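Morning!

As promised:
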Amino acid sequence: AQKITQTQPGMFVQEKEAVTLDCTYDTSDQSYGLFWYKQPSSGEMIFLIYQGSYDEQNATEGRYSLNFQKARKSANLVISASQLGDSAMYFCAMREVYNQGGKLIFGQGTELSVKP
Amino acid sequence: GAGVSQTPSNKVTEKGKYVELRCDPISGHTALYWYRQSLGQGPEFLIYFQGTGAADDSGLPNDRFFAVRPEGSVSTLKIQRTERGDSAVYLCASSLTSGANVLTFGAGSRLTVL
């Protein structure tokens, strides 16, 4: 069973507008973490934002925020004021076991294109 | 080093050959991870080290794959008798500890098996 689902293979957004990238997850654990990574064409995965399952407030990091809806098992990424440099692949990921912090399960990714 | 360094960046080999991929993590990072990313997919976990020992190798696809980290720093992923299906980008990441939230990834080693 797919643990992380990203249903949008590709998205377009106009520069300076906001965009939401969808992510749903499946786990029976009570303790888990959710992550978003950006992968530009250079290939490196860049950490963007983290949300713990017990965090009551949505995580924010600069222009990135994570819309965490626990009951719906969704962890959507919101990018505000899009910039041309935001064009990249975006991956949602989940960590199920606390001490295995780096053992992540990734979704298939969403390719974001920012138009000038 | 300032970041995670992976060599080679590109490797083309023939089916059946042996390949080694190297990862040099950020200095002081005790946890090191290997992932494999096939075309159009997200990365898939292979193995992670805490110090010198492999704490979890449950993602290694078969016994042709092996990884070592003898001194708790540099790691080498070894693939024997390569197959065309092994073609992928192999990503290495490190973190300060295994419980840390932030992984720092390298740029990857792209392996092509002809």
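The longest strand of chain B covers residues 88-95.

Hope this helps with the figure draft.
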